[in-house]
Amino acid sequence: MDFLPQHVRTAIQEMGAGAQPDINKATKALFAPLLEGGQGITETQDIAYGDHARQRMDVYSSPGIKGAPVVIYIPGGGFTGGDKRQDANFFGNVGRFFARRGVVAVTGNYRLAPEFTWPSAAQDVACIMAWVKEHIAEFGGDAERIVLFGHSAGASHAASCLFDPELRGDLQVRGAMLSSGLYVLRTSEMRPNVAQYFGSDETTFARRSAVSHVAGTTIPVLLTVAEYDPVPLATPTFDLAIALTRRDGHPPKLLRLDDHNHYSCISSLGTSDTRYSSALLAFVEDVTKG
Predict the structure, then answer these.
(1) Domain CATH number, residue 209
(2) Pick from 211, 236, 214: which is nearest to 225 by CA?
(3) Cα(220)–Cα(247) distance, rounded to whole angstroms?
């Protein structure tokens, strides 16, 4: 198993724990030269799943594939930004990584705060899932073997879609992979961008926190957190792990990614650092078999 080049590891350590835009930019610059190519992958871009300009998705597949497992990826962006295709590398690297390994991948955008507030993005995730269930066979995917994958704000929206009692997206997929998301709302950790989506009324926080609705579900979940995640984006993973442990009677699958920051884990997909990607693939294989 290969790990990060030393210069990349050192640079990430020097950046420290944070999720500022400059760390995002610097991290992606480190990983862009390390990415594998996308040769042989079919990319179908900007498929509409709704009327709004943000309700678009991309599909990545290998020619001739049939009956393949499917991963739906919901990217982050701090609730007020982000894109499934920020540039030529990210987050096409996610779709290409899975497609090269026999998995059909869908990367989807969603409506953003402050114009669209809770639960609009989670509803968009549900719409993406519904579209995939109906159409993914056209791209070689199996509609009964879907895994939902989210990172950062995308993980928050994915978790809301999965566990919210009015959406119950957990019934539509085989499993979920949630990385460094916000699953519980706390006044002490309420940042302005988060409040723009979830609101600032403390009396609504329990209802709008995904951890409040885990009981009664059965979906398998892989949780991941990065060593250099900032505290407000690290602690919710453990809150969700506690809720899943109480639900199942045993801890969920949980991976801490050493040497990684909030952005580098997702940027590493398609590089020689396979600690994150191997865990994702193993989980997809496990929950979609049979």
Answers:
(1) 3.40.50.1820
(2) 236
(3) 11
Asked if pLDDT for residue 1 goes beyond 60, the answer is no
C-alpha–C-alpha distance, residues 39 and 26, integer Å: 26
> What does the pLDDT look like over 23-59, one tens digit per residue?
999 999 999 999 998 889 999 999 999 999 999 999 9
At residue 65, the pLDDT reads 96
Residue 61 forms part of a structural domain: yes
CA distance 12 to 6: 10
Q: How many domains does the chain have?
A: 1
Q: How far apart are CA 212 and CA 204, in angstroms?
A: 12
pTM: 0.98
What residues does 137 pair with on adjacent strands? Answer: none
Decide if 109 is inside a domain.
yes
- The range of the structural domain enclosing residue 52 comes to 6-288
The model's pLDDT over 169-193, given as tens digits with 9 standing for 90+, comes to: 999 999 999 999 999 999 988 999 9
Taking each helix axis from N to C terminus, what angle separates 6-15 and 21-31, rounded to the nearest 10 degrees?
Answer: 180
Domain assignment of residue 191, yes or no:
yes
19: in domain: yes
Residues 6 or more apart from 183 whose CB is under 8 A from it?
A: 155, 156, 159, 209, 210, 211, 236, 237, 239, 240
Packing angle, helices 120-135 and 153-163, rounded to 10: 70
